[in-house]
Write a structure and sequence with these properties.
171 residues; mainly alpha; 2 domains; 8 helices; 82% helix; 0% strand; globular; TPR-like_helical_dom_sf; TPR repeat; repeat
C-alpha cells in the first residue's frame, strides 16, 4: 500500500512543480507534496531496513532527504540526514555515514537543537569507531558528554558515558 501511496503523492508532486498554489494556511502545495513524499519514503525505508534491505532503504532515504530539502523544512531535512547517516552506517558505509551525519550536525547547530547535536556526535563517533579511528571517536563522545552535562540531559549523559566505557574496554 505504501508503494501505491508513493505513486499518488509523486503524481501530486509533479502537478505542483512550478506552481504557486497554496492551501488555506498559506503553505504551497509543493511543500505539502514534498512533506508527504518525505513521510512515505521514510516509511518505505523503515520497512526495508526491517527486512535488512539496506541498499533499497538507502535509495528511499535519499529520496526522502531530497524531498525534505526541497520542501524547505530544516527540521525534516535534519531528520532525513540523520536517518540516512544511520542507514549508511548499518550498511557498512562509514565514510558516507560520516559525511551525511556531518550535514545533520550542521543543520541541528543552525536549529540550536542540543539533543540533535548530541545524537550527531554519538552517531559520528560510532562511524569513526567502525573505521578503527578510536581517538577521533572518543573526541566526539567527549563532545556529546559535554553537551549532555551542560544541558542536564541525564539519559544522554548515561548513554555517552556507557558508550565511552565500552570503547575503552575494547582497546
Amino acid at each position: 500500500q505504501l508503494e501505491e501511496a508513493a505513486e499518488h503523492y509523486e503524481a501530486f508532486y509533479r502537478l505542483t512543480l512550478g506552481r504557486k498554489w497554496t492551501d488555506e494556511t498559506g503553505r504551497t502545495h509543493n511543500s505539502l507534496a514534498c512533506e508527504d513524499l518525505w513521510r512515505i519514503y521514510t516509511l518505505l525505508a523503515d520497512k526495508m531496513l526491517e527486512n535488512k534491505e539496506h541498499q533499497q532503504a538507502i535509495k528511499s532515504l535519499i529520496k526522502a532527504f531530497q524531498m525534505a530539502k526541497e520542501g524547505g523544512d530544516k527540521k525534516m531535512e535534519g531528520a532525513s540526514a540523520y536517518r540516512l547517516g544511520l542507514a549508511y552506517l548499518s550498511a557498512g558505509l562509514p565514510e558516507k555515514a560520516i559525511s551525511t551525519l556531518s550535514t545533520y550536525m550542521k543543520i541541528v547547530e543552525e536549529l540550536n537543537d542540543i539533543v540533535g547535536l548530541g545524537q550527531a556526535y554519538e552517531a559520528i563517533a560510532k562511524s569513526l569507531q567502525s573505521q578503527g579511528k578510536i581517538f577521533e571517536s572518543i573526541q566526539y563522545l567527549e563532545k556529546f558528554i559535554e553537551i549532555a552535562k551542560s544541558n542536564n540531559l541525564c539519559e544522554s549523559l548515561i548513554e555517552a558515558c556507557t558508550y565511552l566505557g565500552e570503547i575503552f574496554n575494547i582497546t
